[in-house]
What does this fold into?
Amino acid sequence: MSAVSGEAAPAAQSPASRRRVLFASLIGTTIEFFDFYIYATAAVLVFPKLFFPASDPASATLQSLATFALAFFARPVGSALFGHFGDRVGRKATLVAALLTMGISTVVIGLLPTYAQIGVAAPILLALCRFGQGLGLGGEWGGAVLLATENAPPGKRAWYGMFPQLGAPIGFFLASGSFLLLTHYMSEPAFFGWGWRVPFLASAVLVLVGLWVRLRITETPAFQRVIDRAERVRLPMREVLVKHPRALLVGTLLTLSTFVLFYLMTVFSLSWGTSALGYTREQFLWLQMLGVVFFGLTIPLSALYADRRGRRAAMIAATVAIIVFGLAFAPLFVAGSLGGTLLFLVLGLGLMGMTYGPVGTLLAEQFPAEVRYTGASLAFNLSGIFGASLAPYIATWLAKHHGLQSVGWYLAGAALLSLVALLGVRRDQAEL
It folds into this structure.
């Protein structure tokens, strides 16, 4: 018997309406993650050379990774800001505002002058735009997950909840593909002169598409019930902190290994692979894109398993596998073997899909509808601070001072904390 067979159905919707909801949740997170990942790629390949003093390349890379981390500290602020309105005004309007915040910040990055043109003001402006990206994503993710899960029919909540999660591999694939095409067809001077700006400016077109889709959806049944029952709370953030601290703590910790794994497999591996291991930028981007295919494929597989066996059980199985992968990190990630490095990326990103597929639904189930936008978003983004913001920086420092295997121990340790939190999760909730 399914662990979630008692789920209550939302108000009746036509198939066309449900498809529109799922596409709205997918397109928004695809755009958001595309914006986020083009920054992550540029933080390794472009910004150290153009936005920071060139006298010390190693320091410039670490400073660039520090601006990358800044967005993760902005995300809880976005959770509080957009979560407040998402739980007070509604999911739809808040999702539109979050998308605009992220999109405008990304387009402005594509217009910024460099360090050679305006000096120290360049990295300051870059940091401000990065903060804006984090602010928007802090409000985007939780709303997209609720848009999907609160419209899900009985027995398909994890399946619906995985649609916004698919935005991550699709967005990453588009971001890496953009830089791969640019570096392949452009000369080095042209790429660093203006080519790197193209993905940031092209984001404007994607944002317009996303806005058009989201303006055509209706409010979720769960939030409509909150309105009808007059259950909206005046200060959702206070309600979460005072009445649901256990859910917030558990939600933050159970997502920790998801963040650490992803940013080790993307930002750190790109940086380490193109420096210490000697791969060219083009070689490694190709390898990463192949790995991301498996990230995308394992998300629906994990959702099917989660709907059959339960979200908690699916997350526990994926987290145990991440611990094992962490212990084998260094032997897999070595120089001189394209096949071995591809296997490393396929395994790591495949495991990422297995944990990422059900995590949004499981987090949403930890909070009641009247504070769910705030609670789920805050837990997810606090985990981003501890699990993702400094992960590339910490991993780079560990690898240089204690060897690559210490990075694997770091991942295994984070996964162990997530496993402890998952063991403390109550049963999957029957009703959202």
Notes: Residues 302 and 354 are 5 Å apart (CA to CA). The chain has one domain: 15-423. The longest helix spans residues 57-88.
